[in-house]
Design a protein that fits this description.
about 130 residues, mainly alpha, flat, disordered N terminus
């Protein structure tokens, strides 16, 4: 008798190439958003905000993928704890970056927050257009 765990790939290994593709698309989207800010004039804080926000979004996606890989092989209670701690840590890092941007004025907070929306936007367009790139 074969179980479901024997038939699936170990630890969700197929996630990492997809996250890599998603991060490349997110970097391109961050560049496009920064180019839109040039209409109002160049500010270094916008460039830094989008760079930090994009890097945080990609790091968060990689961390999420690694956590999902670890959670797949755990019992339900431990997996739930892993996923909640992953969410909490990603939210804490985003909050710290935004607070740093607000308090110092060195980073555009909009530039930090907008890239966090890119995964949802890109995956929605991928689904609607039927591209199946991700």
């Amino acid at each position: 008798m074969s179980s479901d765990t024997e038939n699936r790939p170990a630890g969700g290994a197929e996630l990492m190439p997809l996250v890599g593709k998603l991060c490349k698309a997110m970097a391109a989207a961050a560049c496009v958003c920064f180019l839109f800010t040039l209409i109002w004039g160049f500010e270094l804080r916008n460039l830094l905000g989008f760079a930090v926000g994009g890097a945080n979004a990609c790091a968060g996606m990689y961390y999420l993928a690694k956590t999902v890989q670890r959670a797949v092989d755990q019992d339900k209670k431990r997996a739930k704890r892993l996923m909640l701690s992953c969410y909490g840590l990603r939210l804490a890092v985003l909050t710290a970056l935004c607070a740093f941007g607000f308090l110092t004025g060195l980073l555009s907070v909009v530039g930090i927050i907008v890239p966090q929306l890119f995964p949802r936007i890109l995956l929605t367009f991928d689904h609607i257009l039927g591209i199946n790139y991700f």
